[in-house]
């Protein structure tokens, strides 16, 4: 029977399943091999950008998908809509969440829940914040893969919002597409899903955190760590407390600073890109905002960063800074 799904009977929330008749252009491509469990794609989208990314994920994974909708549809009038979005985000900061029409009874069938949203005024769009708030206990212990679209703004504030709304979920690397990168949705989604799949298969100690927090001038953003002996040693050091590093710019491509400790090296010929975290010569911590090729140890990647501008934005631009690392 189809009534045994995780969606509350009598509720309007029904997932679009891959075989659904009338499904348009979403013929599944080759599903990724060796998928460990089932996935659900949740998204909210007002002008279709986030929805396009959601559909691409669903096409690759051949999984269920559900739109998270506000209880009261947004105004067609653009300015009225902007005003309401601002009011809702202000209310959320006071702990008052807008009503959403979408309710999922349980997520038992799903290991990974993809959560997609547009950035509104630097934040996660209000309907998705309200949905996560209402479903935090059902999402505990699930793997959450965030994806977001924006005009140009970064996603680190919204990642922080998601992590505090769902403190007991495990967060993967984030996918962020901007106006400039939306046309590359297809290859970027595919590459991202392959990385998620690889990390999922690699993780021998799933209870171990793979998230690093970086704080610059009071703002915190996150990175997803690689699994190697270098990051293991770094995590052991950070388990004892945060580590602050004075960093300066080098070669118009990176910030570099001394860790004050030596970590095991896992050097390989590597081409870096914006957001890559690198261990250089065992004792220097490097944050890349541009590309370079060298024999490096990869430590991880800043979440949701695709471009030099986005990485420099998180670092407060070019110039000397103190970065504090914590788990
Ligand atoms: C209310 C509102 C606020 C927005 N705020 C931002 C913002 O702060 N930064 C940004 O880069 N884009 C902002 N945008 C643009 C959207 O994030 C962007 O167009 C996104 O891709 C829309 O996704 P959608 O088509 O799925 O709704 C905003 C859009 C709306 C409607």
Write up what this structure looks like.
This protein has 327 residues and is α/β, with parallel strands linked by helices. The chain has two domains: 164 residues, Rossmann fold; 116 residues, Cyclophilin, CATH 2.40.100.20. Helix content is 27%, strand content 28%. The protein has seven helices and 16 strands. Strands 8-9-15-13-14-11-10-16 form an eight-stranded antiparallel barrel. Strands 1, 2, 3, 4, 5, 6 and 7 form a seven-stranded mixed β-sheet that branches. Strand 10 and strand 11 form a beta hairpin. Helix 1 packs across helix 5. The N and C termini lie far apart (45 Å). About 5% of the residues have low confidence. The site of flavin mononucleotide (FMN) has 19 residues, from helix 1, helix 2, strand 3 and strand 5. The site of flavin mononucleotide has 19 residues, from helix 1, helix 2, strand 3 and strand 5.
Q: Main sheet?
A: 8 strands, antiparallel, barrel
Shape, principal axes of CA atoms: globular
CATH architecture of the largest domain: 3-Layer(aba) Sandwich
Tell me the number of structural domains: 2
For the record, what is the CATH homologous superfamily label of the largest domain? Flavodoxin domain
* Rg over C-alpha atoms, rounded to the nearest angstrom: 20 Å
The unreliable regions are 20-36
Write down the CATH topology of the largest domain: Rossmann fold
How many H/I helical runs? 7
CATH class of the largest domain: Alpha Beta
List of distinct ligands in this structure: flavin mononucleotide
Give the topology string: H per helix, E per strand: EHEHEEHEHEEHEEHEEEEEEHE
Q: What proportion of the residues form beta strands (DSSP E)?
A: 25-35%
Integer average pLDDT: 88
Compute the number of strand runs. Answer: 16
Estimate percent helicity.
25-40%
**Span of the ends, CA to CA:** 45 Å
Structural class, from helix and strand content? Answer: alpha/beta
Q: How would you write the strand order of the largest sheet?
A: 8-9-15-13-14-11-10-16
């Amino acid at each position: 029977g189809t009534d045994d799904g995780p969606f509350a009977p009598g509720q309007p929330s029904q997932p679009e399943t891959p075989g659904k008749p009338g499904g348009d252009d979403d013929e599944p491509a080759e599903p990724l091999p060796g998928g460990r469990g089932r996935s659900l794609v949740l998204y909210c989208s007002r002008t279709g950008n986030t929805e396009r990314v959601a559909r691409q994920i669903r096409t690759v994974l051949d999984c269920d998908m559900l739109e998270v909708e506000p209880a009261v549809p947004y105004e067609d009038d653009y300015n009225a809509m902007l005003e309401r979005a601002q009011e809702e985000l202000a209310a959320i900061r006071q702990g008052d969440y807008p009503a959403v029409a979408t309710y999922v009874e349980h997520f038992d069938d799903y290991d990974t829940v993809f959560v997609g949203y547009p950035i509104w005024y630097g934040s996660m769009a209000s309907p998705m914040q309200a949905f996560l708030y209402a479903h935090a206990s059902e999402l505990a212990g699930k793997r959450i893969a965030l994806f977001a679209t924006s005009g140009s703004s970064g996603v680190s504030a919204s990642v922080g919002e998601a992590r505090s709304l769902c403190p007991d979920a495990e967060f993967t690397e984030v996918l962020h597409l901007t106006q400039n990168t939306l046309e590359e949705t297809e290859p970027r989604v595919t590459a991202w899903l392959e990385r998620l799949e690889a990390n999922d298969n690699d993780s021998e100690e799933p209870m171990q955190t793979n998230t690093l927090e970086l704080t610059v001038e009071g703002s915190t953003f996150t990175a997803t760590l690689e699994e190697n002996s270098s990051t293991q040693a770094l995590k052991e050091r950070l388990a004892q407390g945060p580590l602050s590093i004075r960093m300066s710019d080098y070669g118009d491509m990176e910030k570099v600073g001394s860790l004050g400790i030596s970590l095991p090296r896992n050097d390989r010929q590597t081409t870096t890109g914006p957001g890559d975290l690198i261990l250089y010569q065992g004792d220097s911590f490097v944050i890349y905002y541009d590309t370079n090729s060298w024999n490096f140890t990869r430590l991880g990647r800043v979440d949701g960063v695709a471009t030099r501008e986005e990485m420099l934005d998180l670092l407060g631009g070019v110039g000397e800074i103190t970065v504090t690392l914590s788990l």
